[in-house]
Amino acid sequence: MNQKQFVVIGGSHGIGLGIVKRLLAEGADVTVVSRSNEFLNDLTGVRHIAHDVTTDLLDPGQLPAAIDGLAYCPGSINLGPLRGLKPEAMVADFTLNAVGAVKCVQACLKAMQAAPASSLVMFSTVAVAQGLPMHASVAAAKGAVEGLARSLAAELAPKIRVNCIAPALTATPLAARFLSSEQKREAMAEKYPLKRIGEVDDVAGLAEFLLSARASWITGQIIGVDGGMSSLRL
């Protein structure tokens, strides 16, 4: 059996790195596309491509000939009141989250179609479905990602499955400023019905499942990993 080939965009830290580690543990080869590789050096079975999704075009020639799964993990947490929201900040969020995703999927598409079956996982946020103050820019950008995921799921079926994960706040480097003290962590945990914040493996575990053949009848879904925030009131 040929070894599975996965591409993780933004796989050098946070949730992306968690996905990479889980895929490697399953025996897959992983190509990581990211600006840095500082946390990848000790991992066996990883190939790194230095790339900035906001400015660069990904060369398909650098990628595996057949891609069994693609995860697009870059994201932003640009929070603030409407009165101070700058158009250029919204453009930057949209470029990173939505336009970057389109460019990377386009670069990977031929190789994904060359695999017997392939899967694409993208990332949104609980703020799209829930409606949270101070989240206008990121919620707008990630709302576009959810629409993109559903559209691609329809367009690329039946060969390529497309799903989107919508986490709440997760303990990653991107969220470090919100969790910089025990008091902040405890206060944030109280916002969730399950009374804790998310950990990388909570989200990476679902992403690994969606990328695998075990999820072969799941496509076009937006799945919350949010401690119950989007659907429960206690």
In words, what does this structure look like?
There is one protein chain. The protein starts with a strand and ends in a 9-residue tail after the last strand. It is built from 6 helices and 7 strands. The chain has a single domain (5-170, 202-225), classed as Rossmann fold (3-Layer(aba) Sandwich). Helix 1 (14-25) crosses helix 6 and helix 2 packs parallel to helix 4 (136-156). The protein has a 7-stranded parallel beta sheet, sandwiched between helices. With 234 residues, it is an alpha/beta fold. Strand 4 (69-72), helix 2 (87-114) and strand 5 form a beta-alpha-beta unit. It has helices at 14-25, 87-114, 126-130, 136-156, 182-189, 200-211, and strands at 5-9, 29-34, 46-50, 69-72, 118-123, 160-167, 222-225. The chain is globular. The protein is 37% helix and 16% strand.
What are the main properties of this structure?
37% helix, globular, 234 residues, 7-stranded parallel β-sheet, 16% strand, 7 strands, 6 helices, Rossmann fold, single chain, alpha/beta
